[in-house]
């Protein structure tokens, strides 16, 4: 199957007090047609910087190296206007807070319709008809009432459905979903996950699903990349990561996921915190929080190595096994 998105050796640095500090390092992954990759990590691990780099929305002062290939085209080489054409068209994104992405003074039909007119060249009338279809597709039954409403007249779940309608309007190759259910209550979260799953299948989209919650990933993604301090520390199929987690950070994240099988157990949080960019430890970045710090981790950082086909981990145990591709 063809890779829709290939991120190769991405590095992002930000200037702080005149010096550059690295927020993303050695980041490589790919997503194929119809596939969802979950990108998981605590706050400050670099998930948003990754998505902003792909979307071409990083602050101009950021220094970006490596390659971000969408359908084989390196996005890091695009001009601003080429990026503007791509965004909302081949490349879409939905955010945690739909209200911050919707325009409060425009009716829903004008906001959804605008993308269709700009990117698909529809007339106003055609765009209105297509908008109604899209609103129905995302499960909004009273589509014509929703189309005439302003964002504040809709519930959070409805606003998120509208955002999803806008995001899939032009059949993107890649949809980035950044914590899209975090602000919603649990029942609505489940509905939105189901909707995204259905649309990804129907439209054969590749999806990058960003979250801090491994439990959510298990429900929507086929593969998962665990991120810590701007690096992928473990990567594999969801069943591999849940059955055989190998990196101490992944194990820590799994111990902090509430069980849904009803069995009660104590949730453990990982002691310590994600290092800030100016505070990165030498060697393994997780070492200060690790329950079993190995002496080797102090001096240098292990590369990703293969645990089993499709499953890679950044610990010394696997460091010299090589990686057959992500
Ligand atoms: N413009 C910037 N200038 C300097 N540092 C930045 C900038 N943007 C992000 N960072 C730093 O990069 C690191 C990664 O941040 P990022 O926002 O990607 O984390 P995250 O995993 O998405 O967290 P959250 O879940 O809270 O959004 C953090 O240490 C953050 O402080």
Automatic annotation (TrEMBL):
Write the protein's name.
ABC transporter ATP-binding protein
Q: How does it sit in the membrane?
A: Peripheral membrane protein
For biological process, the GO terms are: peptide transport
Q: Which residues form the ABC transporter domain?
A: 5-254
| MF term (GO), any | ATP binding
Query: Main site of residence?
Result: membrane
* InterPro entries, per database record: AAA+_ATPase (IPR003593), ABC_Ni/Peptide_Import (IPR050388), ABC_transporter-like_ATP-bd (IPR003439), ABC_transporter-like_CS (IPR017871), Oligopep_ABC_C (IPR013563), P-loop_NTPase (IPR027417)
Q: Does the keyword Cell membrane apply?
A: yes
Pfam families, alphabetically? ABC_tran (PF00005), oligo_HPY (PF08352)
A single Gene Ontology CC term: plasma membrane
The UniProt keyword set, sorted, is: ATP-binding, Cell inner membrane, Cell membrane, Membrane, Nucleotide-binding, Translocase, Transport
Q: Which CDD domains match?
A: ABC_NikE_OppD_transporters
Q: Which organism is it from?
A: Alicyclobacillus mengziensis
Q: Which protein family is named in the record?
A: Belongs to the ABC transporter superfamily.
